[in-house]
Amino acid sequence: xxxxxxxxxxxxxxxxxxxxxxxxxxxxxxxxxxxxxxxxxxxxxxxxxxxxxxxxxxxxxxxxxxxxxxxxxxxxxxx
Length: 79
Fold this sequence. Notes:
- By secondary structure, the protein is mostly helical.
- The chain has a domain at 11-63.
- It is built from two helices and no strands.
- The termini are far apart.
């Protein structure tokens, strides 16, 4: 939702804060923050949703595969 238009009153602002925190975690771990995206889109903006989704997909494709994560962690054992 756009600011001030959320059915849950402040839900979109909480989502924005969580997104900012996630972005900082990605940067801290060395992952490109461009792999995630936040946008204000209402349910009536289907065309904008598609446009933003295509932009994000293209951005992630340009970044390419994650590097440094080919091997599983040694401290995690499968069940």
